[in-house]
Write a structure and sequence with these properties.
Elements (H helix, E strand, L loop, with lengths): L7 E4 L15 H6 L1 H7 L3 E4 L3 E2 L11 E5 L6 H13 L3 E6 L3 E3 L3 H7 L3 H4 L4 E2 L20 E4 L4 E4 L6 E3 L5 H16 L4 E4 L20 H4 L5 H11 L8 E5 L5 H7 L9 E3 L21 H17 L5 E2 L9 H4 L7 H13 L4 E5 L20 H12 L4 H11 L36 H5 L5 H14 L1 H5 L1 E5 L6 E8 L2 E8 L5 E4 L8 E5 L9 E4 L4 E6 L1
Parallel strand pairs: 1-2, 1-15, 2-5, 5-11, 11-12, 12-13, 14-15
Antiparallel strand pairs: 3-4, 6-10, 7-9, 8-9, 16-17, 17-18, 18-22, 19-21, 20-22
Helix pairs in contact: 6-8, 12-16, 13-14
The structure holds alpha-D-glucopyranose.
Alpha-D-glucopyranose binds next to loops.
Length: about 550
């Protein structure tokens, strides 16, 4: 299987490398950093959308699927990027945002101008009465999910920002347009596709949510999801034996994901699911803080590993992305044990069964941004929720603290390459402020240390590329009741690997279920060279044992 030895590196292009002095990352900037990525060892780059977009949701509001925003560069720049990446053994994955378009997209504009054909690309409905939207669904970015359009006396659905109108996938023309867009990028040499919130495209019905929740039960993993994905597969990427696809699945279930990403189901190669990243949501609410519930986290990771493996389906493995706060700040300790906990989290995630995704800056332990002023935030979700929480009566300091922990902008600040101005990202003011700590936390500084986080990531990547047990071994949980340690085995024939991860900043002890004779230490973040059956673990210690 082509996906087993892949390691995907996610680039948030707006914040990766500016080459033309406008404070905005670009394609030529990425080209200048390809050697760095080759040294890291990754073999795929996923780019967040770089198409023409009013940037209301940082490119997830696409106004033209076939044209690059000139701020990122030209099509020639992109073609050069594809060639230069390929020379280094790296393929490109593009982000396809097909649940919605920007309201500035030509289709929506023509719909507004009264062209019936394009009006049918979107979901327009009559309200329940004057000023009352068609149902009580809430947008994921706060407020009603419906926007009134006076000339039609109707509302359009937007599950995200008001500028992101949902497409109507029951319309075969919409499905054909989407397949054509994938094929357009395939012809440009793109083999990988990430499908944005793709499990929201099939809406079951438009009734009120009886629980007064946001309505997700009616539009998540809907009745025609699997059919639409198979159709898209056949009409586009499925024709390319080298394609690699991942679906971003919002609030999904294992039952659906074994089909989305099952062997031979002809839908996608793998899925992003997010349950493990909600274990620090108090009462399941994103804007209510609590420390991660470790037993819940461990239980969820185990359940998804086993549930997917049982049906021969495939997970994407990740802690970080452009929508999540930085894992080292969130689940590790970004002060006293930044290095140790960054390595432990990487090892714990990447030794599991699936395809690892590394988010820019993770490989040297970038932390949350810790902005102190709402003016520093750019993200529409963050600024909206700021207003909502203030209106609910929360003190400003508390709201700012919540954003420091939860805002998506924590991950979106400029890449910290070195200690020069703006961390080497740009020599002019970046579109979003650089983190205060870049002089200390940056790629160059980390790599000057022989024991760097970067070197640890290189080793993890090398193991994934070279060891069949890492690629294909079956996942088997061990020490399931241990309250501090997440440990598991990977087994392939005679080969066996044991990963032991102390999730906490205190020492602890484990006794493995078997003697360790015949095992050797494959990886350690404390320079450990041997381990018996009982191991006294240091804070955030991670250890991989291997026997052939
Ligand atoms: C996905 C993207 C996120 C975006 C949303 C709407 O969750 O990752 O950044 O805001 O979809 O497109």
């Amino acid at each position: 299987m082509g996906k087993n030895d892949k390691i995907v590196y996610q680039i948030y292009p707006k914040s990766f490398q500016d080459s033309d002095h406008d404070g905005w990352g670009d394609i030529r900037g990425v080209i200048s950093r390809l050697d760095y990525l080759q040294e890291l060892g990754i073999n795929y780059i996923w780019f967040n959308p770089m198409m023409i977009s009013p940037q209301k949701d940082n490119g997830y509001d696409v106004a033209d699927y076939r044209a690059l925003d000139p701020r990122y560069g030209t099509m020639e720049d992109f073609e050069e990027l594809v060639r230069e990446a390929k020379k280094r053994g790296i393929d490109i994955m593009f982000d396809m945002v097909f649940n919605h378009t920007s309201v500035e997209h030509e289709w929506f504009q023509r719909a507004l101008a009264g062209e019936e054909k394009y009006k049918n690309y979107y979901i327009f409905r009559r309200g329940k009465g004057p000023g009352v939207p068609p149902n009580n669904w809430q947008s994921k970015f706060a407020g009603s999910a419906w926007q009134y359009v006076e000339q039609f006396d109707e509302y359009y659905l937007h599950l995200f920002d008001v500028s992101q109108a949902d497409l109507d996938w029951t319309n075969p023309d919409v499905r054909k347009e989407c397949a054509d867009i994938v094929n357009y990028w395939r012809a440009k040499g793109v083999h990988g596709f990430r499908f944005d919130v793709i499990n929201l495209i099939s809406k079951a019905s438009f009734e009120d949510d009886p629980n007064n929740f946001d309505g997700r039960q009616f539009y998540t993993d809907g009745p025609k999801e699997h059919e639409y994905l198979r159709e898209l597969n056949r009409a586009s990427f499925g024709q390319d034996p080298e394609s690699l696809t991942v679906g971003e699945m919002s609030s999904t279930t294992i039952e659906n994901c074994v089909r989305y990403a099952g062997e031979g189901t002809e839908e996608l190669d793998m899925v992003f699911s997010f349950h493990h990243l909600k274990t620090d949501y108090k009462n399941k609410k994103k804007w209510e803080l609590q420390p991660a519930d470790f037993m819940e986290l461990k239980g969820l990771l185990t359940e998804w590993q086993l549930g997917m493996q049982e049906k021969n389906a495939w997970n994407a493995l990740f802690w970080n992305c452009h929508d999540q706060p930085r894992s080292v700040s969130r689940f590790g300790n970004d002060k006293e044990y930044r290095k140790e906990s960054a390595k432990m989290l990487a090892c714990m995630m990447q030794m599991m069964r699936g395809t690892p995704y590394i988010y820019q800056g993770e490989e040297f332990g970038m932390t949350n941004a810790y902005f102190t002023d709402i003016q520093e935030y750019a993200d529409v979700e963050s600024t909206n929720i700021y207003d909502v929480l203030l209106k609910e009566g929360k003190p400003k300091e508390e709201v700012l603290h919540i954003l420091q922990e939860r805002s998506r902008d924590n991950a979106r600040t400029p890449m910290q390459w070195d200690d020069s101005e703006n961390g080497g990202f740009s020599d002019v003011k970046p579109w979003i402020r650089s983190q205060a700590g870049y002089k200390e936390i940056n790629a160059a500084n980390d790599r000057s240390d022989p024991d760097s986080i970067f070197a640890f990531y290189q080793e993890l990547i090398r193991l994934r590329k070279t060891m069949p047990v890492v690629q294909e071994g079956l996942f088997e949980p061990i020490l399931e009741d241990h309250t501090k340690v997440f440990a598991y085995k990977r087994v392939l024939g005679q080969e066996c690997l044991i990963a032991v991860n102390n999730f906490f900043g205190e020492e602890t002890e484990v006794t493995l279920p078997e003697a360790t004779d015949g095992y050797r230490v494959l990886l350690s973040n404390y320079g450990r060279t041997e381990a018996g059956q009982t191991i006294h673990l240091k804070p955030y210690e991670t250890l991989v044992l291997y026997k052939a």
